[in-house]
Design brief:
Blueprint: H1 15-28, H2 41-48, H3 52-64, E1 68-71, E2 79-82, H4 86-99, H5 105-126, H6 129-142, H7 149-166, H8 170-182, H9 184-193, H10 198-217, H11 221-240
Helix pairs in contact: 1-3, 2-3, 4-8, 5-7, 5-8, 5-10, 5-11, 6-7, 6-10, 7-8, 7-9, 10-11
Length: about 240
Amino acid sequence: MDDRAGWRPVARARTYELVIDRIEEQIVSGQLGVGDRLPPERDLAQMLGVSRAAVREAFRALEAQGVLRMAVGTGPDSGTTVAALPSQALTRLLRLHVALANFPMADVVRARIMLERESARNAAQRATEAELEELRELLDEMDAPDCDRERFNDLDTRFHVAIAEAGGNRLVADMTIAIRESLRRPLLAAFDDLGDGWFPIADDLRHDHRLIHQALLARDAADAEAQVERHIRSFYRSAWLQDLG
């Protein structure tokens, strides 16, 4: 196959964005797929009639979006390849916009409820015994006496993400990961602000998690959905002293 096939020279205005357009065309048309290697910077610059700097800037922009993976060196994993890392890109984007208050916290939490209801329903129907056991192990770790707030938050995130992944919908799982990671700092800040009030709330969260797990074990999709929503709304009310409505 001719490596030059499909690569057309681009105009020089806003060059790196036009290079991105050409790469996107190759992906959308099916010429490039996950794991495929792009031509080296020098070669691609010649094919497109642009500078290496423009190609490098395009590569970096697409890497930040989770579309490409760049690795230096001379081994089999070196070079620039098409990646499949949507959760990383979504997480980075959403975390910044949450930090900038472009998305009100209540809106983010409502979106989380919609996604996690879907995940819980699907997981109740599709989760394997191994996935259900993984959830139980996470709950046991959260019960450990030496589980501090940061560790609890990390395990809590893993629990909810594991449910999303067990549901079998990759997009829902990636969006759940993005929302949970974007909320990591606000959640830790809320935990700290609670002071000693954190301890009874942590007990409530542990209890909620067990109820969710029990619903999944029972393959009760309706109950799993309801328990997840009640759990999220209850914590939001306790941590931010507001109702979602």
